[in-house]
Design brief:
Shape: globular
Order of helices and strands: EEHEHEHEHEHEHHHEEEEHEEEEEEEEE
CATH architecture of the largest domain: 3-Layer(aba) Sandwich
Number of domains: 3
Radius of gyration: 22 Å
Number of helices: 9
Number of strands: 20
Helix content: 10-25%
Length: about 350
Amino acid sequence: MGYGIEKVLPFKGPAVVFANHTHTNDPFFISAMYPYTIRWVAGSYLFKMKGVGFLLRNLVHAIPKVQGRSDLETIRNISRALKEGDIVGLFPEGTRSWDGEMMDITGATAKLVRIFKVPVVFVHIEGGFLNKPRWSDTVRKGPVSVRVVKVLTPEEIQKMSLDEITALTKEYLSFSTDEWQERAKIPYLSGTLAEGSERLFYLCPECHSFSTIHSHGGTAECSSCGFSVTFDDYGRIRTNNAEIAYTRLSDWHHWERKELSEIYAGTESGEIFSDHGILFQIPGKKKLQTVSTSFEISGEKEGLRFTFENEIRHKEKSFKELFFPFASLESIVINAKQTVEFYADGMGMRTISWT
């Protein structure tokens, strides 16, 4: 379903479309209701996925973007597309929301608005997160709708300062699944509402243990202390501990992020958390090269440490362990399929740390 489409009818192109990002299919949801063709800027890793990559290349003529890194080539491609009269779609968050709430929008977005000097269309995806949360492997039965919120014309943009553009961009883009659902009250049905939520809930709020949350059906439980939450059809949770009465996923997620920051700040050195990895890849000449399918990853005060079950070879050297100081990491991006892709000292790495 689409709402507010009449607002964009005068703007056949060039134009830029900005939207919140909650679902893998967001570009297709918007393109399906939008009256004109949109060329989407999409993470380069998506082009490596057979089905999605085919659609991005051939259906929406997407523009690839290496996430987490400055990509001047992407900016050039966007400018070229706009000069040719195309409409370009972007997700300023850069990646999908983990808890349905809007992530940070940087001032770089406002700079793009000013540089391109074309109409800017602000769109909200409603219900996308509840239809299929980022951490879930299954789709729930419930609607996804698209709403055009606002169109800024080049004349309006020209009269604004950069700070004013930044403020309006954040205002028109901001979207909260929790607040929207409080008004909409739409059920999203599934027999596996909680399954996969341990990818979001990595820290138990009762015993503060890492990686002890496990899910089944509509419930997630800590294997260490027995703390549990039950998920309902409206995206809410109910805990078994009255003193930790979270009702929103974002409440728990906000707490664990804050707690992790405090743990990191209070740790002088050594391991903060650890997990088991099932795939470690590095760039080869033509494709990613798998060097290990079993290893331990630990987050330490100084960086990330990988300990391999068997020795790995790279550039004629053998390694049983690799350590990457945080200062050497150019970017870290969580992609689809629970894949963490990071760049260290100019060399891209990819790991899958949880199933």
